[in-house]
Amino acid sequence: MNWLNSEAFVLFDQHILWSDMVGNILGLVGLALGWRRSIWSWPVQFLSGLILFGAFFGHLTGSAGKQAVVMTVALYGWWQWNRSKGEAGDGHIVPRFASWRERAAMVGAAAVGTVAVALLFKAYPTLSWDPWPDAYIFVGTIVAMYAQARGMVEFWFAWLLVDLVGVPLNFANGYAFSGFVYVIYGALVLWGMRDWWLRSRNGARPTLEGAPA
Asked: 207 in helix, strand or coil?
């Protein structure tokens, strides 16, 4: 796995590692597949986590641990979508808006989780270079993936909130490549949000033969 931590190229004076490049590209592909409601979104997200886990394992324990959690949620998403994929006439899941109780639970979990993870990062400085933003992004990612697994339109809003911190944070710390990737994430999030929003209004009504999906 040493090749994952080797340099792929230099962009904007930033040394891009193979692990960063491949992981970011797979993350974009996974999000695009999520927009299309393809169940293959989950294996791609799992593979992205696996590659980054292999890159971090042995020298960046905290980062490797975070990827292990991401892979676990990806497995849950795969299982959940397999159970729900027949609900729509086109064979995919049916997007829906979360109930107010579900929204409150996710917001509460995000707030408590961010504080708990940030305090853990502060107690063990080797786990993170910037505890609070790192905890916010990590917990926000998990909440977004959970909402995606449940087919909630709010999963796009969660990703957007993650991007609002991820973009300026990466640029401010000199990670221009990662910052541009987060900008692309933002564009995909807006398009995906619109698509799921419109589909949620149609519910589980069957698609007429010959009608556009």
From this structure: coil
DSSP string computed for 146-169: HHHHTTBTHHHHHHHHHHHHHHHH
Could you tell me where the beta strands, DSSP code E, fall in the chain? 7-11, 14-17
Query: Cα dihedral sign for 184, 189, 194, 200?
Result: positive
E-strand stretches of 2-156: 7-11, 14-17
Tokens 């710390």 belong to residue: 173
pTM for this entry: 0.81
Cβ proximity of 150 and 136 under 8 Å: no
Helix (H, G, I), strand (E, B) or coil at 205: coil
Residue entry with tokens 């221009």: 176
* Nearest alpha carbon to residue 45 among 27, 33, 57, 63: 27
Tokens representing residue 89 in the block: 């006439």
Residue with tokens 């929003």: 197
pLDDT of res. 67: 82
* Amino acid at residue number 133: P
Given the structure tokens 């589909």, which residue do they identify?
A: 199
Residue 209 pLDDT grade (very low, low, confident, very high; cuts 50, 70, 90): very low
Average pLDDT over residues 81-89: 73
Q: Which helix (H) or strand (E) holds 71?
A: helix 61-84
Here the tokens at position 44 are: 């791609």
Mean pLDDT of 137-144: 91
Q: Can you name the residues that pair with 15 across neighbouring β-strands?
A: 10
Q: Which of 27, 73, 69, 18 is nearest to 48 (CA)?
A: 27
